């Protein structure tokens, strides 16, 4: 399988970033960027990377099982990640997460029927001074409230 | 419009690393601005120095690792054998994940070239040929900023075949993580850099002898490297004089939780913890009273309000039974439910334990279950002794410090807030078990 030309160029550069013979170093970044384009780390992606990086499938699967950002099944178009760790919890992150569950009608790691939204309760996002924080795909949102959350969901719905 | 993450400057701050952080800017300092404000002068100076002299200067500065452990940086660098025939590597730990910590994103997001310059100086000191900036996967925004800054540095000859025309070749790139707290531990990070699961390695050998790809490696936090250019420019003694003895310089403190003005501020090491909270942070929010402080990220044992009148440096906090850790200061007000805090933290450690060694894998899981039971109000007094016992059996018995990181705050909260937790158990009479029995609960 092939990826977009931009991604292929990125991969070529990435593999060169590791010492000769140690191209496995590029595996995790490549998996994450591939997932961003394909939607998930599919069987085809695993086979393709096993071939390109001269790895066995199990070397890729053990990595997939470890890192929380890598998934085998696609998430929603807008993957909502709400932090409920200490600083966010103290400032309303837990309530925000519960509000999100009610608003979207899904639970932790759930996905709406139309595939637009998925929700995940995540650990510290490193935005503690601007808590409560959340992320939609790679975009951060700070100082969240249930009202701001509802407005954000409305604006994301309009993107369809 | 992009929101600024900077806070208005406070008169008690001492801005060294953050001197280019003009409030309320939103864009990073790109290379032209960096060069116009004294950027890349330190690497030029370092290139004219003997590598040993660079390490010596960093030793004199009393700079200690800002990632959490507080190990003297100069000493760490001196462990690398420059005569080794193997290639030497430099790794930046930007896998910021310690709950409460949000300084690396500010440093990379506003002054990326400072990090590159610090890395170059470290690389020169050990004779490295390549480096990686390991950034957590969620920080795509900052990976893109670092990528662009690295490209700029290549284009101007600060990276590549001949750094500043000196003939020394050095390459740098970013490397993205993919969601793992454990990869912030240095040897787990190296495993992850090699494309494997982030399980920690047995030490020794330490990374200075066998690190990335089994070659001598120095690995430091973003903030540690960012301090290096000023140490080289102004001298180690100058930097050391900013802090307290053995605790040189300034550090970034991330104020969060129940505080009036949360934010990232730069303060001299040794500033009183209460001054940081009450003056710089504006005090506890909503006019409430202080209950407790987590002084160095969630892994550091909590301090009760009456224990906070101490200088915030590595040695003083260690003496107070806690640690400066990553500089994350989480403020808890009088209304905070400590059982809830404990349960949430244990849930975190159980989720992030990599499962490589048993005391941590089992210990964090049981701590999570027991504290969840306490939070539900169906615990018993015996649970407190069990938490203490499990924690003591984790301390020092794991490959990496994650086990300690869970055990230390658990023990501190249970010991210091014992009465509060017991009250909660007693209040939940409807769930009270028959005397001498343990309540059954599926959690």
Observed structural traits:
heterodimer, A: 160 residues, Glutaredoxin, 7 helices, 11% strand, B: Rossmann fold, Ubiquitin-like (UB roll), 3 domains, 5-stranded mixed sheet, 4-stranded parallel sheet, 17 helices, 9 strands, globular
Query: Strand tally of chain A, please?
Result: 4
Number of helices of chain A: 7
The helix content of chain B, as a percent range, equals 40-55%
Number of H- or I-type helical stretches of chain B = 17
| N-to-C span of chain B | 44 Å
Highest-level CATH class of the largest domain in chain B = Alpha Beta
Return the structural class of chain B: alpha/beta
* Name given to the CATH homologous superfamily of the largest domain in chain B: NADH-ubiquinone oxidoreductase 51kDa subunit
CATH architecture of the largest domain in chain A: 3-Layer(aba) Sandwich
Question: Over all CA atoms, what is the radius of gyration of chain A?
Answer: 18 Å
In round numbers, the mean pLDDT of chain B is 95
How is the largest sheet of chain A built, in terms of strand order?
2-1-3-4
Structural class of chain A: alpha+beta
What does this structure look like?
- The complex is a heterodimer of chains A (160) and B (443).
- With 160 residues, chain A is an alpha+beta fold.
- In chain A, 44% of the residues lie in helices and 11% in strands.
- Chain A contains 7 helices and 4 strands; from the N terminus they run ααααβααβββα.
- In chain A, a hairpin with a 2-residue loop joins strand 3 (134-136) and strand 4.
- Chain A is elongated.
- In chain B, strands 6-5-9-7-8 form a 5-stranded mixed β-sheet, covered by helices on one side. Chain B has a 4-stranded parallel β-sheet with strand order 3-2-1-4, sandwiched between helices.
- The mean pLDDT of chain B is 95.
- In chain B, strand 2, helix 7 (140-155) and strand 3 form a beta-alpha-beta unit.
- Chain B is built from 17 helices and 9 strands.
- The longest helix of chain B is centred in the last third of the chain and has 19 residues, at 358-376.
- With 443 residues, chain B is an alpha/beta fold.
- At the A-B interface, helix 2, helix 4 and helix 5 of A face strand 3, strand 5, strand 9 and helix 13 of B.
């Amino acid at each position: 399988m092939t990826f977009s030309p931009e991604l292929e160029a990125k991969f070529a550069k990435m593999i060169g970033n590791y010492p000769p013979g140690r191209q496995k170093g590029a595996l995790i970044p490549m998996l994450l960027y591939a997932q961003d384009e394909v939607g998930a780390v599919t069987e085809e992606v695993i086979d393709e990377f096993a071939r390109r990086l001269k790895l066995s499938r199990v070397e890729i699967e053990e990595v997939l099982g470890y890192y929380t950002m890598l998934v085998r099944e696609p998430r929603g178009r807008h993957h909502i990640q709400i932090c409920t760790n200490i600083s966010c919890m103290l400032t309303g992150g837990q309530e925000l997460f519960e509000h999100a569950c009610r608003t979207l009608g899904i639970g932790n790691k759930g996905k709406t029927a139309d595939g637009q939204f998925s929700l995940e309760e995540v650990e510290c996002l490193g935005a503690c001074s601007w808590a409560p924080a959340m992320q939609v795909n790679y975009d951060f949102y700070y100082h969240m409230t249930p009202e701001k959350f509802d407005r954000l969901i409305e604006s994301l719905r309009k993107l369809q | 419009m992009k929101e600024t993450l900077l806070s208005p400057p406070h008169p008690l701050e001492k801005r060294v690393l953050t001197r280019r952080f003009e409030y309320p800017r939103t864009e990073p300092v790109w290379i032209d601005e960096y060069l116009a404000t004294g950027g890349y002068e330190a690497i030029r100076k370092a290139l004219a120095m003997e590598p040993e002299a660079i390490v010596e200067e960093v030793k004199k500065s009393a700079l200690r690792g800002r990632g959490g452990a507080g190990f003297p940086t100069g000493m760490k660098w001196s462990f690398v054998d420059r005569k080794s025939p193997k290639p030497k590597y430099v790794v930046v730990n930007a896998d910021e994940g310690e709950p409460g910590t949000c300084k690396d994103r500010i440093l990379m997001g506003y002054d990326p070239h400072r990090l590159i310059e610090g890395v170059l100086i470290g690389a020169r000191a050990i004779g490295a040929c390549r480096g990686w900036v390991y950034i957590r996967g969620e920080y795509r925004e900052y990976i893109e900023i670092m990528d662009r800054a690295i490209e700029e540095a290549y284009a101007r000859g600060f990276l590549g075949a001949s750094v500043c025309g000196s003939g020394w070749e050095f390459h740098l790139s970013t490397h993205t993580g993919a969601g793992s707290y454990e990869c912030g531990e240095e040897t787990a990070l190296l495993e992850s850099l090699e494309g494997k699961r982030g399980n920690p390695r047995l030490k020794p050998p330490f990374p200075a002898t066998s690190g990335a790809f089994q070659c001598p490696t120095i690995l430091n936090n973003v903030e540690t490297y960012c301090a290096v250019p000023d140490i080289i420019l102004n001298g180690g003694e100058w930097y050391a004089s900013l802090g307290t003895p053995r605790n040189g310089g300034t550090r970034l403190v991330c104020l969060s939780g129940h505080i009036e003005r949360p934010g990232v501020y730069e303060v001299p090491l040794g500033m009183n913890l209460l001054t940081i909270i009450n003056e710089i942070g504006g005090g506890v929010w909503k006019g409430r009273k202080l209950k407790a402080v987590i002084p160095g990220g969630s892994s550091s044992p909590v301090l009760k309000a009456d224990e906070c009148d101490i200088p915030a440096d590595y040695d003083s906090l260690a003496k107070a039974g806690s640690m400066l850790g990553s500089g994350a200061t989480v403020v808890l007000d009088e209304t905070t439910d400590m059982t809830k805090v404990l349960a949430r933290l244990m849930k975190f450690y159980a989720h992030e334990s990599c499962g490589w060694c048993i005391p941590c894998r089992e210990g964090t899981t049981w701590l999570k279950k027991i504290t969840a039971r306490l939070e539900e109000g169906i615990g018993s007094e015996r649970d407190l002794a069990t938490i203490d016992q499990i924690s003591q059996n984790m301390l020092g018995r794991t490959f990496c410090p994650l086990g300690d990181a869970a055990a230390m705050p658990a023990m501190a909260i249970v010991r210091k807030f014992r009465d509060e937790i017991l009250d909660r158990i007693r209040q939940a009479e409807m769930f009270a078990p028959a005397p001498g029995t343990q309540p059954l609960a599926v959690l």
